[in-house]
Design a protein that fits this description.
By secondary structure, the chain is α+β, with helices and mostly antiparallel strands. It is built from 3 helices and 6 strands. The longest helix is centred in the C-terminal third of the chain and has 23 residues. It is globular, with a radius of gyration of 15 Å. The two termini are 28 Å apart.
């Protein structure tokens, strides 16, 4: 898989796509405990030449949590991805170059980032908003 189009085709066939735009897909991943997590899969272009895919999923609003406590938890437990502020939301995100991307190099981080965000959301907000 080396192009955005290839990745989009794979995601459409494999996941519950709830929004589909040219450079962005939103996917709902459901869990056995009836919780779900929405993840944004977006095409990014680095230096106007290299295509990357960014996986980002919100897990809390900044005003809902103690930021220092959340960042400490992420630092101690998260293997893939990092925390970022996007507007009023805290997200976990991870980026990968598309060139020569193998499917497991996408699926594994997607599952890790999304699952980790789901756990953080439950731990820090007690809700299932995203």
């Amino acid at each position: 898989m080396a192009t955005w189009g290839d990745l989009v085709a794979y995601v459409r066939a494999s996941y519950d796509v709830i929004r589909d735009e040219d450079d962005e897909l939103r996917v709902r991943i459901s869990y056995d405990d009836r919780r779900a997590q929405v993840v944004v899969i977006a095409r990014e272009v680095l230096d106007r030449k290299e295509e990357w895919v960014q996986i980002a999923t919100p897990f809390a609003r900044i005003d809902q949590v103690d930021l220092q406590e959340v960042l400490a938890e992420i630092g101690n437990t998260i293997v893939v991805g990092g925390a970022a502020l996007m507007g009023e939301h805290l997200v976990l995100r991870h980026s990968l170059p598309l060139v020569n991307l193998d499917i497991n190099e996408f699926v594994d981080p997607l599952e890790l980032v999304t699952g980790s965000a789901e756990l953080l959301e439950e731990q820090f907000t007690g809700r299932d908003d995203y």
